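Entry 14. Structure prediction run on the chain below.
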Amino acid sequence: MMNNKSGIRRLVLDVLKPHNPSIVELAGVLGDVEGVDGVNLSLYEMDQKTENVKITLEGLDLDYELIRQEIENMGAVVHSVDEIAAGKRIIEEVETHQDR
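Output returned:
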């Protein structure tokens, strides 16, 4: 039998959403997704109709497609996947000369 587990442990998404639902409601929905152990939403840009939010999710086996579906069900869209950590443990990003 094929193993459908993704192995993704951290997922950072750039998401564009309408003002409604609120980031509180979106966080609650995403926190209830199977495999999600924690979620953090940060609002970093707002205009008259939309909000850009950074969504960080952690869990032992995140399902990107299921998470994307839930985001879209709330009227939002994933602009980009900004970070993924996978494997048996999370490796923290290290600053290099190129990052300066």
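The chain has a mean pLDDT of 91.
Filed with the rest of this week's runs.
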